[in-house]
Amino acid sequence: MGFVIAAAKGTGKILLIDPMTQKVAQEMNAGSRPNGLAWDTRRKRLLVADVGANSARILDSSSAQVVTTVSLPGRPRWSIYDPRLDFFLVSIREHSGVLAISAESERERFMPVSVAGAHGLDNGKEDGRAFVACDGKAVVVLDIETGKEIAAAVPLAGAPDAIWYNPLMKSCTAPLGERESLT
Predict the structure, then answer these.
(1) Which domain holds residue 126?
(2) Which candidate, 66, 7, 54, 68, places its Cα nearest to that of 35?
(3) Are strands 76-82 and 45-50 parallel, antiparallel or unpaired?
(4) How many domains does the chain have?
(5) CATH number at residue 47
(6) Is 183 contained in some domain?
(7) Which residues contact 124 (CB under 8 A, 6 or more apart)?
(8) Residue 21 contacts by C-beta under 8 Å, 6 or more apart in sequence?
(9) Per-residue pLDDT tens digits for 1-28
(10) Is 72 part of any domain?
(11) Does 32 reside within a domain?
(12) How far apart are CA 33 and CA 56, in angstroms?
């Protein structure tokens, strides 16, 4: 069935929880204050962004060992894995942007964002776009391959936290109940 992964920021641990028994199946040490998590489906590895050390650790789920540690250029916020490009993406609050970290090698690339406080992050897994919700009250769309913004920032009414891209939802003009199903 799988498992649930939770960051226990106060203890510096990652918890793997069995959803059937609702018990912690495994604990992994993940730094001082683990926060953003991203799952590499190919290698069964977990990226853990540490807000205490401004770093990201990649953990091997089978051995619970740290495979690599990457120093981040600022405080991390959200993290995701892009299976098409085989990169982890980590939003960085200051200097606002997204750090792309290769899941296979030591390569990394910083993509600046024009709006302050990169925070919530998701991607269009089929098309190489990243959507970045920023504290500066806007969503920015990045081309992950070029690292460039590909559209004008979309204003928001307030500062965001999370963001979610739904490729199945075809229209935002119909009432929620009449839109295409999520499944």
Answers:
(1) 4-178
(2) 7
(3) unpaired
(4) 1
(5) 2.130.10.10
(6) no
(7) 130, 131, 165, 167
(8) none
(9) 688 999 998 899 999 999 999 999 988 8
(10) yes
(11) yes
(12) 11
